[in-house]
Amino acid sequence: MYRFGSVSVDVDSVEVRVNGERRPTEPQVIGVLTYLIEQRHRVVTKDELLDQVWGTQFVSDSAVTSRIKSVRQAIGDNGRSQSMIRTVHGRGYRFIADLDADLDAGPGAADGLTAPTSVGEPDAASTARTLDEGWPLVGRDQERDRTISAARGRDGGGMLLTGPAGLGKTRLASAVIEDVANDDIYVARIHGHPGAASVPLGALAHLLPPEVTEIAGVRGEMARTVLLQRARAAIREAAGDRRLVLLVDDVDRVDALSQALLASLIADGAVYAVMTQRMDAGQSLAMEHLVRSGDLEHITLSPLPDDQMIALVGRVLDGPVSPMTGATLVSASNGVPGVLRQLIEASLQRHLDDAGPRLASDGRRDAAR
Domain for residue 87, yes or no? Predict the structure, then answer.
């Protein structure tokens, strides 16, 4: 039995109640919610949810998105406020509501339900949260400085960062955006997603006022032209007199109309865009015409060398680690920071399960041994 605010979740009875009233909820939705609650100290990826809730059943990423929406509807959350379940773009989801430690006076008490014996675990949760939110950027100095310099310049254009999963493309792009943001530079983030890839201007919807899409009496290509002109004007107006820098994560998953608008803004020098794209074997570049024209610079990220991976381990674990630990982690991760992160977080999770609230402040170092 879990309770947060006015919501109670009875795992055994597969039931959600809000203010004591039962909310009809599918078992799979309860499964997603329960797993997020149990893993509340960290971000849960879509792939992990698919493995844990769906198992060997083959479903697409959109199934996770749909179930997250159903979970939010059941508990009274929504994608805008995200007061209970936070979407961490490019990574997954995290349950962030505070659980109640005492259910005696709450809904379900009359049914003989009891609270979990351990809900808070403040020290352990704090340690995991620090690791999750404070993952440092190590290496990539040349790429970072090169991109920051261009983003702060006067010309438009952009940088396309590509490479296999886990190399830190989004982390590098985010660092650039954070470094250049100031009173003279307007920054905005755009995230490509398969679920919105077929929605015209879906990737840019959060940057556009509602009236942009209100087109009466216009059809076909003319409607597309009017829509592009309005969206372009709205984005330029939002930036005002400031330089406009955009982070476009997973640009290959951005809808075609948004890609056309971005290409127009980049080619005209109206924006500087820092883009990322995961590249698998045989995959073609998004915005390749801009790369060929020179409007978009292309950097392919490579795995980090061993010394930088060792430095990353030390940064994450707040100090030096034994040579054996460092060598094991570096060898297993093969220069890919994302794999290293999974290894450390998995080790930390096992340590948290064993140590619970008794985890000391140096628990992150212990967890990786």
Answer: yes
